[in-house]
Amino acid sequence: MLPRLFCLVGPADDLSVLPGLARLGIRGFQVRAKHWSTPVSDRQALELVRRVVAAVRPHGAVVVVDDRVDLALAGAADGVHLGALDLPVAEARRIAPGLLLGATCRDRDEVCRAAADGADYAGLGPVFDTVSKPGLPPALGLAAITAAAGPLPLLAIGGLDAPRARQAREAGAHGVAVIGALWRPPDPLQAARELLDAVA
């Protein structure tokens, strides 16, 4: 079952919070293994993947790795999420048939292609403007979720707090992936409770 809420995790985030987030009910964690503000080696990235897996898997959560099939396999993660410049979805499915496989998409045509190539879900976004990742294309808006829904479960991403996460679900998203909505508030656990309520 694809989680309805994914928490993106990078090397600057407080990993001590992860078990608490998983105990509350967050069942998806995505390790950002590329595009970090401070360059890290592959060995450091692999260690981060392993630390996240060790922190959340005992509580029933799954871990996907952003962009890197090799790190997902080496770190015993559950899946990989691929962007437009990463390994093609069909190739990732061929070499890692057992991984949960997500693909970044911006419209229904891209979602259909990802489904045909073997993806399990599509990450659609940015739905709203966000400051968590620079250089993103223009925000799609909620209508894009409704237009793209159907071929694959959609995880909306980009500028989502709890009220917007609820709107994304109502528009047809299976769930959401968040960065700032969890890591910027002073109490990530309370933010997690609000997000979990919003996507339930």
Automatic annotation (TrEMBL):
Pathway: Cofactor biosynthesis; thiamine diphosphate biosynthesis; thiamine phosphate from 4-amino-2-methyl-5-diphosphomethylpyrimidine and 4-methyl-5-(2-phosphoethyl)-thiazole: step 1/1
Residues the record lists as binding 4-amino-2-methyl-5-(diphosphooxymethyl)pyrimidine: 30-34, 66, 104, 133
Gene3D superfamilies: Aldolase class I (3.20.20.70)
Occurrences of domain Thiamine phosphate synthase/TenI (ranges): 14-182
Cofactors: Mg(2+)
One GO term (biological process): thiamine diphosphate biosynthetic process
Enzyme Commission no: 2.5.1.3
GO molecular function: magnesium ion binding; thiamine-phosphate diphosphorylase activity
Pfam families: TMP-TENI (PF02581)
Catalytic activity entry: 2-(2-carboxy-4-methylthiazol-5-yl)ethyl phosphate + 4-amino-2-methyl-5-(diphosphooxymethyl)pyrimidine + 2 H(+) = thiamine phosphate + CO2 + diphosphate; 4-methyl-5-(2-phosphooxyethyl)-thiazole + 4-amino-2-methyl-5-(diphosphooxymethyl)pyrimidine + H(+) = thiamine phosphate + diphosphate; 2-[(2R,5Z)-2-carboxy-4-methylthiazol-5(2H)-ylidene]ethyl phosphate + 4-amino-2-methyl-5-(diphosphooxymethyl)pyrimidine + 2 H(+) = thiamine phosphate + CO2 + diphosphate
Domain of life: Bacteria
Co-factor remark: Binds 1 Mg(2+) ion per subunit.
Cellular component, GO annotation: cytoplasm
Family annotation (InterPro entries): Aldolase_TIM (IPR013785), ThiamineP_synth_sf (IPR036206), ThiamineP_synth_TenI (IPR022998), TMP_synthase (IPR034291)
Binding site for 2-[(2R,5Z)-2-carboxy-4-methylthiazol-5(2H)-ylidene]ethyl phosphate: 130-132, 159
Binding site for Mg(2+): 67, 86
EC top class, as a word: transferase
PANTHER family (alphabetical): THIAMINE-PHOSPHATE PYROPHOSPHORYLASE, THIAMINE-PHOSPHATE SYNTHASE
HAMAP family assigned: TMP_synthase (MF_00097)
Family: Belongs to the thiamine-phosphate synthase family.
Protein name: Thiamine-phosphate synthase
Lineage, broadest ranks: Bacteria, Bacillati, Actinomycetota, Actinomycetes, Propionibacteriales
